[in-house]
Amino acid sequence: MDSERWGSNTRRTILTMLGLPLLALMVLPLVGLVTRSSVAEVIAAAQSPALVEALALTLQTTLIVIGVTIATGTPLAILFSTRYRTQHWFKTIIDIPAVLPPAVAGLALLTLFGRMGWFGQFLAAHDLFVPFTTGAVILAQLFVAAPLYIKACTIAFEQLDPLLADAARIDGASAWQYWRLIVFPLTASGVQAGLAMTTARALGEFGATALFAGNMPGRTRTMALAIYVYADSEPQVATAMSIILLAVAIVLLIVTNVRATPAHAQ
Q1: First to last CA, the chain
Q2: pTM score of the predicted model
Q3: Burial class (CB in 10 A: 0-12, 13-18, 19+), 2
Q4: Do 25 and 138 fall into the same domain?
Q5: Using one digit for the tens of pLDDT, what is the confidence trace for 75-94?
Q6: Alpha-carbon gap, residue 176 to 184, rounded angstroms
Q7: Are residues 220 and 127 both part of a single domain?
Q8: 38 backbone dihedrals φ, ψ, rounded to 5°
């Protein structure tokens, strides 16, 4: 027994030492960011009109992205969780936007919605222009963030026991009762994780937004773009914005992890 414990402790120590440099690289920059300014300085900087404007725009566009993602991404996740011949290809296509370099994502959106793009030409003929508008910010966030939700939900739905549907049908449950009382409770942790990742990704989107939507104050300048703009000219404002985004990300992760933790592990 003692030898087993010694072996376990030794293995844990070796793994910790091997992973410590990477762990330090991930943690220390965040600690440095948080300790760069005092609470009073962050509160003062948070009252900057530039921050309030960028935060309002970011929250507005992110909320819209969340709503659209849930309404249209959930049916796709349900579809992708069922087995059919081309399932693998569709799932791969959906994953591509999440791994594309941000500049490529922005250029791809311009190819579609720009003045000479496939849809852009039609829209321009009706005096409708998508690039460099708030709508472009929403499309950019949706393009890169929605796949994270779809992926997480698909995995959650795939893990359901197919016999549950048969059991519910035998017990006389309707399709709505089956989804409401069985599917949604059992997949809630996966759905919530996907929603948290999508929200965080939308809040922090930078590259695709900069290329496709531009960087116009009050119109397309989100928090991520504002941080880039004020990093040199007003570092305190940039730091306050960064800390706010970091706090949101931490809250999302905490909520997700608490919800996903099994009851016996709590």
Answers
A1: 26
A2: 0.83
A3: exposed
A4: no
A5: 999 888 887 667 778 778 88
A6: 10
A7: yes
A8: -80, 165
